[in-house]
Design a protein that fits this description.
Layout: H1 5-34, E1 49-53, H2 54-59, E2 63-65, E3 68-70, E4 75-83, E5 89-93, E6 98-102, E7 110-111, E8 116-121, H3 123-154, H4 160-187, H5 191-195, E9 202-206, E10 211-215, E11 224-225, E12 230-235, E13 240-247, E14 259-263, E15 273-285, E16 290-297, E17 310-316, E18 326-330, E19 335-337, E20 340-352, E21 355-371, E22 374-379, E23 389-392, H6 394-410
Antiparallel strand pairs: 1-21, 2-23, 3-18, 4-13, 4-17, 5-12, 6-8, 6-11, 7-10, 8-9, 10-12, 13-16, 14-15, 14-17, 15-16, 18-22, 19-20, 20-21, 21-22
Length: 411
């Protein structure tokens, strides 16, 4: 069969196109044969597991630790309050009444022992100094006369009666002068400048100890005060008492000198402060069934602990009565759930394209004695001794696990 030239050209082009399509299909099939197999899906988490990304772990500052051993049963627990030793508290009054003319201190500032807190003005104060100078001149005259009479008597030209009278006057003047000097010294007057004739018109009120200053009610410039009126209170809180109430069944274990670990519910971020038992009250409180035990905090860090704060305390009893050490975890590692307690451990790490993924598993534990921030635990199911326990962030894991359970339920 014969085709026209134009038709022959069209057939040739169509044949070439068919050949090209067949080759492309064959190449595509070959490429498909060489493609890698799809990645197998990760096994699903069991109900006790929770998965966190690397960013989540960093965001909550999750920390891992190991089981440790502590003696947590050889302790006595008690509660109480902080108080200030009486030697560390001073109520400051004026020795003599007057009008407040200066107040160079502000409430709350630290003051030194002997620092001037206020100055009072009183005409009687000036008169007291004048009386002292008059008495001192009188004493000088009587002292000279007494020495002269003694010399005359020694030369047998004097009269014994005159010597005796002069001696009596001299001794009386000396006693009066010494009394005035002590009175002026108590008021804060420097005797050296006064003997040189420098009379001061204002009476200083000085701090009897170093500490923090508190104003007393009614304090004001120009106010009139009497010796009975307290002007300031100075508190030295660098050393504090811990007043504890120990129950009847425990106080027999407590001894002077034992270590006490004190924590403060109102300051949850503050680590335990160390104290030492210093006193055990010999009287038993029948109403509360407790005995008063006092411990001493010798170093109040930055004076941030204040008298009156409520405290929890753990007293270390004698080592001879201590049981064997037991496995413990930090208190923060334990999360309650109903009537049970749980901890979390790291069980697996996955490398993903988006970063590292961490899988944690919840384990039920039986809790025992607790002290010094640690609690004795016994896992219900045996765990490796080197298990990595979540010691910070366990509550977040519990919340994430509950959230996941809630989402599954909704589905």
């Amino acid at each position: 069969m014969t085709f026209p030239n134009s038709t022959r050209c069209r057939l040739l082009i169509f044949a070439l196109l068919l050949a090209g399509c067949g080759k492309k299909g064959a190449d595509t099939a070959a490429a498909d044969d060489k493609a890698p197999a799809a990645k197998a899906a990760d096994p699903p988490l069991n109900p006790n597991q929770v998965q966190l990304s690397e960013n989540q772990v960093k965001a909550i500052n999750l920390k891992l630790g190991r089981f440790t051993t502590h003696d947590v049963s050889n302790v006595v627990k008690a509660t109480g309050t902080l108080s200030l030793p009486p030697q560390r508290r001073a109520r400051v009054s004026a020795y003599q009444g007057g009008i407040i003319r200066t107040l160079p201190v502000t409430e709350g500032q630290p003051v030194r022992e002997g620092q001037v807190l206020a100055e009072l003005e009183n005409p009687d104060f000036v008169q007291l100094q004048q009386d002292y100078l008059t008495q001192r001149n009188q004493f000088t005259f009587l002292e000279t006369d007494y020495n002269r009479q003694k010399a005359l008597l020694a030369e047998q030209v004097g009269v014994a009666k005159n010597v005796q009278q002069t001696a009596a006057n001299y001794n009386a003047a000396r006693a009066t002068l010494r009394s005035q000097e002590r009175q002026l010294a108590t008021l804060g007057v420097a005797l050296g400048p006064l003997r040189a004739g420098r009379i001061v018109s204002r009476l200083p009120v000085k701090s009897p100890l170093a500490g923090r200053l508190r104003y007393q009610p009614g304090l004001a410039l120009g106010g009139a005060v009497t010796p009975a009126d307290p002007l300031f209170e100075v508190l030295d809180t660098r050393r504090l008492f811990v007043e504890l109430q120990v129950f009847e069944q425990d106080f027999g274990k407590v001894r002077v000198g034992q270590a006490v670990h004190v924590t403060f519910p109102s300051l949850p971020g503050l680590p335990a402060t160390e104290a030492t038992v210093s006193y055990i009250d010999p009287a038993f409180n029948a109403a509360t069934k407790t005995v008063k035990v006092r411990a001493v905090i010798d170093d109040n860090r930055n004076e941030q602990l204040l008298p009156g704060l409520f405290v929890n305390a753990v007293i270390d009893v004698d080592a001879a009565t201590a049981p064997a050490a037991v496995a413990t975890v930090p208190d923060a590692a334990i999360v309650p759930e109903g009537e049970s307690s749980y901890i979390y451990t790291l069980v697996k790490t996955r490398r993903e394209d988006t970063g590292t993924e961490y899988i944690y598993e919840k384990h039920e534990v039986r809790t025992g004695a607790a002290a010094k921030g640690f609690t004795a635990v016994t896992p219900v199911d045996k765990l490796p001794a080197n298990a990595q326990v979540v010691v910070s962030g366990a509550y977040y894991l519990q919340a994430q696990q509950g959230k996941g359970s809630g989402e599954e339920t909704d589905d």
